[in-house]
Structures are given as structure tokens and as C-alpha cells.
Write a structure and sequence with these properties.
Layout (H helix, E strand, L loop, with lengths): L1 E5 L14 H12 L6 E3 L2 E8 L2 E8 L7 H10 L7 E7 L7 E4 L8 H10 L5 E6 L9 H5 L5 H21 L4 H10 L2
Parallel strand pairs: 1-4, 1-5, 5-7
Antiparallel strand pairs: 2-3, 3-4, 6-7
Helix pairs in contact: 1-5, 2-3, 5-6
Length: 188
């Protein structure tokens, strides 16, 4: 079984903000696969999808970003999912808006959601799809920036990023993540 986790914050005020791009990708996958996230466990919403490639768990932690590991770690234990079968989708300030960067391991890079996952999983070695949101303009606090909605111009770039993220997830179900990573990181 694979587990695909999109990071974000629960609640209406956070919908479609920069920090919630992981939730947006999970919603796009759930819509494409025709399966809403209706199950709840360990302070997360999830659904189990039966795909030709095997079972896939789509997850949105409802712990708020900084405590994401409190949901993901117990879910992985409960469903007996290995860390190599995890893909985490989240926003990245160090990438241009709409750009994807896939990685198999790495530090949290200042991202508190990833920091929480590393702490609860006990490893930095898990697959990631980082979605670029760019840095805030001069004088704007990072917290205000990541919790703001995208500009109209950026919304177009992010729609493409969501589609590309969905494609990367689907490719990873039948191919080694390293191959998917090399393909998506080489394109664009």
C-alpha cells in the first residue's frame, strides 16, 4: 500500500493558500479518482483507493501544518505502510512559483510540516514532491505570505503545478520513485 500525504492547514480561512498546495493536490487526486476523503483517523482525513497498481491511501492531516507527523506516523503504523511507500506533497519557498522538485530525502529546510514528519518517522529519507511558491516580497513576513492566497497570475501556474503533481503521483504508482524524480526534475 502507498500513502500520499498533502500538507496543509484545515479550515476555510486556509483553503487555496500557498501553504495548502499539498491539500489542493490531494483534492485533485481524489476528484480524478472519484473518491472523496470521507474517513477520519489519527486527526486526519483519508480515503483508500483501489488502483490497478495496488491500494493507495490519500491523506490530509488535520493537525495543522506544524504537527503533521502526529497524524502521518500513527496512520502509517496502523496500516503497516513502510516509509519507502510514502510521498509527501508540500509548498516550497525556495522554488519558483509552480515549479516542481521531487526528492527522495533531505532536511526540513525550515518547513515545519516536514520537520514534524522527520521527527515522527525517525528519518529524513522519504519521497517528496515540493511545489514552488517563491519567496515573499521584501518587507512581508513569511507567515503572512504562506497563509495568503495566490495572485491571479500565480493561480494559473499553480493549476499547472497541481496537474504535474497528480501526474507525478500517478507515475510513481507503477515506476520507481527515482525514475519519476529524474523525469519530472529534468522537464521544464
Amino acid at each position: 500500500m502507498k500513502i500520499i500525504v498533502g500538507l496543509g492547514n484545515p479550515g476555510k480561512p486556509y483553503e487555496h493558500t500557498r501553504h495548502n498546495i499539498g491539500f489542493d493536490v490531494i483534492d485533485a487526486l481524489a476528484e480524478k479518482w472519484g473518491t472523496p476523503l470521507t474517513n477520519s483517523k489519527f486527526n486526519g482525513m483519508y480515503t483508500t483507493v483501489h488502483r490497478p497498481e495496488g491500494k493507495v491511501l490519500l491523506v490530509k492531516p488535520l493537525t495543522y501544518m506544524n504537527l503533521s507527523g502526529e497524524c502521518v506516523g500513527p496512520l502509517m503504523d496502523y496500516f503497516d505502510i513502510e516509509v519507502e511507500d510514502l510521498i509527501v506533497i508540500y509548498d516550497d519557498l525556495d522554488l519558483e512559483t509552480g515549479k516542481l522538485r521531487l526528492r527522495q530525502k533531505g532536511s526540513a529546510g525550515g518547513h515545519n510540516g516536514i520537520k514534524s514528519l522527520i521527527q515522527h518517522l525517525g528519518t529524513q529519507e522519504f519521497n517528496r514532491i515540493r511545489v514552488g511558491i517563491n519567496r515573499p516580497p521584501a518587507g512581508m513576513k513569511v507567515a503572512d505570505y504562506v497563509l495568503a492566497k495566490f495572485s491571479k497570475e500565480d493561480q494559473v501556474l499553480m493549476q499547472d503545478a497541481i496537474v504535474n503533481s497528480v501526474n507525478a503521483v500517478e507515475a510513481s504508482l507503477s515506476k520507481p520513485f527515482l525514475d519519476v524524480m529524474n523525469h519530472f526534475n529534468a522537464s521544464k
